[in-house]
Amino acid sequence: MMPVQAPTTPSATWSRTAERIMAAINRDPLTAPHAIRNDALLAVLTAALAVVLALFVDDGRRPDALGWALLLVSHVPLVWRRRRPVPVLLAVVACVVPYHFLGYTHTAATQAAYVALYTVAVTGRPLRTVLVGIGVLTLSVSVMLTISAHEALGLLKASGWVVALLFLGVDVRFYRQYVASIVERAERAERTREEEARRRVAEERLRIARDLHDLLAHSITLIGVQTSVAAHVLSADPERLDRETVAKALDDIAETCRSARGELRTTLEVLREHGPPDARGPLPGLDGLTDLAEAARLAGARVEQTVRIRQAPPAVGAAAYRILQEALTNAVRHAGPGPAVRVDLVEREGALHLSVSDDGTGPVPGGTPGFGLVGMRERARSVGGTLDAGPRADGGFEVTAVLPLTKTGTGTGTMGEGTG
Questions:
Q1: For the chain, first and last CA: distance in Å?
Q2: For the chain, what is the radius of gyration of the CA atoms?
Q3: Which of 210, 211, 221, 219 is nearest to 374 (CA)?
Q4: Alpha-carbon distance 110 to 54, whole Å?
Q5: Displacement of CA 176 from its chain's centroid (Å)
Q6: Residue 163, Cβ neighbours under 10 Å: how many?
């Protein structure tokens, strides 16, 4: 069954025609498709008009064989008018000047010259257009003066059309340049928006990956240590089972699982959001340091902390929280049983100075490196800070970071100062 086409209304036809006309006006003539074909058609139509004028207008003698040859040949160069506007104009003038000099119908030969002049104006710079216009008018008046002063005066009176045609070409050229600049700016803005969207997506993916790494590494490490404690109590002396210790270890495991599940849900909710990317839940901050230290103590570490810092910006607080979380997780995992861990957070010279050190054995030499140190450095760089990590001279491992505090993020209150 053939598809039924909707009837074409006159308004729709006119709309499509207007769109095609505006597209032809806005398009750069040097890049227009089918230029040779369209200019050849224009040359034929202009030549036909010139023939009609030569037959029916009486402002000179009717062309003979030479006149018809000059008149028709003057339209041939118009086929290449877009590619070589100035040479085409010179070729047209070379045919039109002897045509006028021999006194043939003058009006018939003006059409090709007008088209060539307009092409020069619409494709070249205004200065070139002015110089070409002056040259053509000077040459035309000089030729007419050789015929008669009356003809030269008539040409000067008609020169206003030439000037108007040149100004029309210049205006069309400026209009096309204006439209092209608008289109170029719109395309650049669209590219910028796409690049910004891709950058935001990449940053968001990196943030989620860091959060998941820090959360899972911290929680799984604590669960592993607490499970080891429970297993040790169960296997050390089954006859004298310390039920209270086993129950406390299992409760700590359950509490760690609940905390990890809640924080994991908060992190993954970002992937389901359809609103703006900044519409997130509250970021972890310095007020969660006590919980981190307590979790490390439950895992067997002896944590001492000193906090002397005024309120930090949310981004800095979140970065400090994640760095401390990863550093304490590494200490519990790699420092050996019962390590002594020192945590210091001090505000000094407009920056948060963070230090986490332990007296353990540190990572096993030659082991497969993880993403913990890389993630901590990325956290520090995300707020314009720096981070160093490595073995201490007297044994153990140390992580130090300097995170700048912005003016808007500093407050008047003190978060806390204590040693545990």
A1: 85
A2: 43
A3: 210
A4: 11
A5: 25
A6: 12
CB atoms inside a 10 Å sphere around CB 153: 13
Handedness of CA 151, 156, 157, 158 (dihedral sign): positive
User: Which stretches within 125-273 are classed as H helix?
Assistant: 126-147, 149-236, 243-272
The residue type at 334 = H
Tokens of 168: 């029309």
Tokens representing 96 are 């039109």
Burial of 308 (0-12, 13-18, 19+ CB in 10 A): middle
Q: How far apart are CA 208 and CA 326, in angstroms?
A: 15
Buried-exposed string 220-251: b where 16+ CB fall within 10 A, e elsewhere: ebbbebbeebbeebeeeeeeeeeeeebebbee
CA distance 300 to 321: 20
CB burial class (10 A; 0-12, 13-18, 19+) of residue 343?
Answer: buried
The answer to whether 345 and 308 are in contact (CB under 8 A) is yes
233 near 249, Cβ under 8 Å?
yes
Measured distance CA(397)–CA(389) in Å, rounded = 8
Taking a C-beta distance cutoff of 8 angstroms, is the pair 414, 347 a contact? Answer: no
pLDDT one digit per residue (tens) for the chain, 420 residues: 444 454 556 666 666 666 666 665 556 566 666 778 888 898 899 999 999 998 888 877 888 999 899 999 999 999 988 888 888 988 988 888 888 778 888 788 888 888 888 888 888 777 777 787 777 777 766 766 766 666 666 666 666 677 777 778 888 878 877 877 887 888 888 788 778 777 877 776 776 676 776 666 667 777 777 677 667 666 766 665 666 777 777 777 777 777 776 666 666 665 555 444 444 445 677 777 888 888 888 777 888 888 887 777 888 888 888 888 888 888 887 777 778 888 998 888 888 899 998 887 766 565 555 567 777 888 888 888 999 988 888 888 889 999 998 643 334 333 344 434
Q: Is the Cβ–Cβ distance between 401 and 385 less than 8 Å? A: yes
Report pTM: 0.43
Answer yes or no: are the C-beta atoms of 343 and 293 closer than 8 Å.
yes
